[in-house]
Amino acid sequence: MPRWPHLPFPLALVLLSLAVGLAAGLDGPALLAAFGAGFGRQQGYFALVLLPSFFLAAALTRGEALGLGRLGVALSPFAGAGMVCPDTAYAALAPVTAGHRRAVAVGSYAGFKLLLPAGPLLIGVALSADVASPGFALLGLALLLPVGAAGLLWLRLAGAAEPPAPAAPPARVAPGAGLRRLLPLAFLGTLLLAGLAGRPSHPALALLTSPVGALLATSLATGALLPPEHRRECLDSSLRRTAPLLLTLGAASALGAMLAEALPLRAWASRLASGQTSLLLLLLLFAVAATFKVVNGSSMATFAAVPPVLAPVLAASSLDRTFATYAICLGSFVAILPNDSFFWLTQPSEAEGPRRGADFTFAGASLLQGLLGIALLSGALLLGGRLR
């Protein structure tokens, strides 16, 4: 029996999207047109978000020695959001938060899913939500607090104790020197808060305080302060990480577009619009996103693939796009499984003792966080809270 080769994930997505298009009865020109439109749907926006984010991530790993302790846990959600990658945020903060590695993992993952400029921005733009509205960002922050607390509680209930931090000789670092590495995150947060406080009328200021503009401005300011050799290293790192991810996101977006062509979404949309409640649609968005995440393991691919599939359903409904965005974000929490790179990154090290197989602690935490989040979001919807 011939064995199937191990296909790279982007290639598997491309082949699957073409198979879906053929199964839907699309002829050659229609198939290529649908694939091309889906592949390029949000590529430009993804590039503008990912390039500066990965540059910042690389820059934050260079500089003076830094020890954060519990402060790293509080910063982890904002690092996960600002770097648009929980893996990078965790890898950067875990070594400098001795004794709090697991809490940092929970915080980085939650911030990536619920805070600008990460998951909510990428999904909200695809759903035509008002991502510049203060209410849009505040809803994510309001969800982050209980969802993050639930993840930390799960760590306690699961008995996921931190290993004792190894003793290390004290490093001679000037007071506050290491904290300079956190200035880019503070600058980014300041610009985002300025945008939430009010929308400037001047186009340049409006761009500067928007999520994408704040990322670009922060990366430029950070690059200007780096030594030339480090600046080049950070630029190369950003390009190396962005290019293959854009291919994956394009393929995932194309798959979503093909599924939108193949599935009877217009018929489903008319049924939902005619007789079903917004709450049912909210739960449907959560379930579809969770299914995509469990199957493919990639949060970013889920962000790219789900909106094209659900856009026709949302177009025929009255569900607020802010609620729709966060329902998909919460669905993508489910779950940190072995097909997710974050699963393996957060596995206990040998220093924590012998293992009898993979550790599924964070799988349970992410499942609890997603379920609690959608319960809270559903409650807000039932209470009639429409954010403007």
What does this structure look like?
This protein is mostly helical and 388 residues long. 69% of the residues lie in helices and 0% in strands. The longest helix has 35 residues, at 228-262.
Write the layout of secondary structure elements.
Elements: H1 9-23, H2 28-39, H3 43-60, H4 70-82, H5 86-93, H6 101-114, H7 119-126, H8 134-157, H9 183-197, H10 203-208, H11 211-225, H12 228-262, H13 265-275, H14 278-296, H15 299-315, H16 321-331, H17 341-345, H18 361-382
- Give start-end ranges of low-pLDDT stretches: 166-175
Number of helical runs? Answer: 18
H and E string: HHHHHHHHHHHHHHHHHH
- The N- and C-terminal alpha carbons lie at a distance of 59 Å
The secondary structure category is: mainly alpha
Quickly list its features.
388 residues, mainly alpha, 18 helices, 69% helix
In short:
The chain is mainly α. The chain has helices at about 10-25, 30-40, 45-60, 70-80, 85-95, 100-115, 120-125, 135-155, 185-195, 205-210, 210-225, 230-260, 265-275, 280-295, 300-315, 320-330, 340-345, 360-380.
